[in-house]
Amino acid sequence: MTKLMTKLLLASTLALFCSAYAQAQGPNASSSLNYYWVSFTDKTGTPYSIDAPEAFLSPRAIQKRERLNIEVTAADFPPNPAYLEGLKAQGARVHHRSRWLNAATVACDSATAAALLALDYVQTVNYVGKYSGQKGPGVKPLKGMAKLGSEIKPDEYYGYGAQQIKLINGDSLHQMGFDGSGVLVAVLDGGFTGVDQSPFFDSLRANEQLLPAVDIVDMDDVAWESSSHGTKVLSCMGANRPGLLVGTAPGATYICIKTEETRSETLTEECHWVAGIEYADSLGADVVNSSLGYTQFDENEMNYTLTDLNGRKSVASQAADIAASKGMLVVTSAGNEGSSAWRGLGVPADAAGALSIGATTLDGRRASFSSYGPTADRRIKPDVSAPGAWVTLADARNYQVTMGSGTSFASPITAGMVACLRQAFPTASVEEIYDAVRNSSSQADVPDASIGYGIPDFVKAYHLLKEADKPRP
Predict the structure, then answer these.
(1) Confidence label for 139 from pLDDT (cuts 50, 70 and 90)
(2) Is the CA virtual torsion 311, 317, 285, 189 positive or negative?
(3) One of 58, 96, 179, 189 is an active-site residue; which one?
(4) Which of 98, 229, 272, 321 is catalytic?
(5) Could you say which of 226, 282, 370, 408 is catalytic?
(6) Which one of 133, 227, 311, 433 is least enclosed by Cβ atoms within 10 Å?
(7) Same domain, 345 and 450
(8) Are residue 35 and residue 72 in the same domain, yes or no?
(9) Rounded Cα distance, 412 and 245, in Å
């Protein structure tokens, strides 16, 4: 596919995505408005058809389904437009909707919410958070990007990030010719300050490996704002400055999707997450990295308990499972609660369809902050663990490297290598790739609730997939 075709494809998909939510672009609302998750009873009377998936999936997404032998089903249909119009007619602002969970996130007051529940096609109306109507701060020029602030290591291609990729044998997989080229990686995060300006991402911009971003929170295309967390996460995979920092998938193409509301912590963010991963699916994303997790909220009645972490209660975990069934490799951070009273995982790391990543030190020991498993229904989590303590990252505001710790960084370090495996094995199933990563790991025979199956060896994972890919007599 040519670069021009890719641009036109993305523009048309983004236009389709945003047109459904035009009502969310109105003036700021009063403090009496709240967000509600509204689920529908059915998709009866839908104008969508399995025979015309181009109405809700991009050509790339359709081609990916065909390559992986995954059928388009009614679950892929957006909610019935007549139902969405019915919500608007009651006075609700439709912020976004979920195809897979047949639902919509709306802003309205409590009286309107009660009226929505009375509609015969509405199944549930659940309060998920307060609506502020405030948008992000917008993009600002960063003065520190002009001058190199870190000394280049001329004898080390991966620069200051060498240890974090070599511990998982990712450098050897790169030497075999796999750097994520041709793979689309969606990054769900809280903001990507400086990505539009940083020299660490020059090659992504120059080679059109950085697709136009989208902000699910504000429903616009301004994602280079609000937080530097996503910038650092992206640098673990996409940075490409030899001698300073080269990520685990410098050849991949990236779409940055802002789903996190950095000004508060409510269940609304899970709704944004669902919309974000469904948007990634509509584009045909191959890999998703989510360095986000949900356990406790500003309003205590929303809080999860450890018994809730069964992979089925949260809408985000449900969506992660569906995403995997649609052919997306969903890689997510396990959480940073290992030293806290909580100790356990966060949502959506409990999802069966997510490859949940714990953190280790650069010499392979479990990082003290890394969350423990298992899930509430006793499944092994984290799945595997990767470097996440004092790893090298791109500084979001200056042209220099910095350091940071968290499963937030262990996850993208792993996700980049998973993208390399997807490049090498474009027809392998999601579960085949997950199994290869797990079975390549340092304690594959004795997985535990501390670091899961252990530290992956991505060359070994490659050979496991290669062996499985051989034709049988």
Answers:
(1) confident
(2) negative
(3) 189
(4) 229
(5) 408
(6) 133
(7) yes
(8) yes
(9) 14
Q: What is the pTM of this model?
A: 0.94
Greater model confidence, 370 or 18: 370
User: Does residue 83 share a domain with residue 169?
Assistant: no
Spell out the residues 6+ positions from residue 246 whose beta carbon is closer than 8 angstroms to its own. Answer: 157, 158, 159, 161, 165, 239, 240
In this structure, the answer to whether residues 226 and 85 fall within a common structural domain is no
Smallest CA-to-CA distance from 114 within 42, 43, 36, 41 is with 36
> Do both 398 and 274 map to the same domain?
yes
408 is a catalytic site residue: yes
What are 161's two structure tokens?
């990030």
Q: What is the per-residue pLDDT for 333?
A: 98
Q: Is residue 137 part of a domain?
A: no
Q: Are 211 and 205 within 8 A, CB to CB?
A: no
Between 373 and 136, whose confidence is greater?
A: 373
Q: Is 272 a catalytic residue?
A: no
> Is 49 marked active-site?
no
Percentage of the residues of the chain whose pLDDT score is greater than 90: 88
Residues 90 and 177 in one domain: no
C-alpha distance from residue 178 to each of 36, 262, 266, 421, 428 (Å): 44, 35, 39, 8, 15
Considering the domain architecture, whether residues 172 and 121 belong to the same structural domain is answered as no
The verdict on residue 9 lying in a domain is: no
* Domain count along the chain: 2
- Is 5 inside a domain boundary? no
> What is the domain-level CATH number for residue 344?
3.40.50.200
Q: What proportion of the chain, given as a percentage, has pLDDT over 70? A: 93
Bridge partners of 129? 35
* pLDDT beyond 70 at 347: yes
Torsion of CA 110, 116, 117, 119, to 10 degrees: 160
Query: What domain range is 364 assigned to?
Result: 148-469
Peptide bond into 374 cis (omega under 30): yes
The yes-or-no verdict on residue 168 having pLDDT over 80 is yes
Is 13 domain-assigned? no
